[in-house]
Amino acid sequence: MASRRALKAVLIDLSGTLHVEDTAVPGAQEALRRLRQASVAVKFVTNTTKECKRDLVERLRRLDFDVQEREIFSSLSAARSLLEQQQQRPLLLLEESALEDFSGVDTSEPNAVVVGLAPDHFNYQTLNEAFRLILDGAPLIAIHKGRYYRRKDGLALGPGPFVTGLEYAADCRATVVGKPEKTFFTQALSDLGCSPSEAVMIGDDVRDDVGGAQDAGMLGILVRTGKYRKGDEAKIAPPPHLTCPSFPEAVEHILKNLLLVE
Q1: Closest CA to 102 of 221, 9, 110, 206
Q2: Required cofactors, per record (predicted)?
Q3: Which residues pair with 242 in a beta bridge?
Q4: Among 153, 176, 199, where does a domain finish?
């Protein structure tokens, strides 16, 4: 167990950690309230591409989570920032509910391909259009490469298998903007005034949440909710700082073991 440190920030995954679709993880709301009473900044970091940030906040508030839009850093935000920096016109393989976060982005005559979670668009015609654009020189941008995620009816394919298929077919490598990329975590911390060594990440994805955070210099706490499967903690090196049943236990550990006592 790590010694007590000057912890300044806690980054929290959303889907699978605080909730699964429209069901909250038991006790998560009260645990979040307890964490907010401590002397640490809280930020929510998500690879969710099924909905825009506004819809995500509304969902969380319906579940009685106290969350502000400005507290969420999403891979959609990171993707938009990259497109604007490079002045690219994307073919957006995203669900309609996520497109609001790309409002104002020019999508005429696409010269880039952006792939998120888009079950309604993962068909031969659309994927072949993306493939041909990439062959003509368009960069492939993956909002993330998650292998799968948790729905109420069980595990479901994430965008990763489709991104990998395009990489294989077009003999290219995608630029990944979401978790587990180091730049995603450092961007999320940038406005909190702390370094990775002063932060901890809580999430249900051992690779994207915990492994990515630890590679960036943070501590990572894995929760056994959401997409977690038995044995996940052994899939990364070093292993998670802690693996615990759910978000409330992660918060309890932080409050008891990771905060300096004044």
Answers
A1: 110
A2: Mg(2+)
A3: 221
A4: 176
**pTM (2 decimals)?**
0.85
Q: How confident is the model at residue 1 (pLDDT cuts 50, 70, 90)?
A: very low
CB 18 within 8 A of CB 250: no
Domain of residue 20, CATH code: 3.40.50.1000
Q: For position 262, what pLDDT does the model report?
A: 47
Let me know: does 185 contact 11? Beta carbons within 8 Å. yes
Q: How many CB atoms lie within 10 A of CB 257?
A: 15
Once rounded to an integer, what is the mean pLDDT over residues 143-169? Answer: 94
Let me know whether 204 and 169 are in one domain. Answer: no
Which tens digits make up the pLDDT trace of 93-127? Answer: 999 989 999 999 999 999 999 999 999 889 999 99
CA dihedral 52, 55, 58, 64 (to 10 degrees): -70
Residues 161 and 221 grouped into a single domain: no
H-state helical runs in 50-181: 53-62, 75-86, 124-135, 160-170
Range of the domain at 154: 76-176
Verify that 185 and 199 share a domain, yes or no: yes
Please report the sign of the dihedral spanned by the C-alpha atoms of residue 110, residue 141, residue 103, residue 82.
negative
215 and 150, same structural domain?
no
Report how far apart the first and last C-alpha atoms of the chain are (Å, whole number).
21
Number of domains in the chain: 2
Residue 4 lies in a domain: no
Residues 12, 48 contacting (CB under 8 angstroms): no
Nearest to 227 by CA among 203, 250, 204: 204
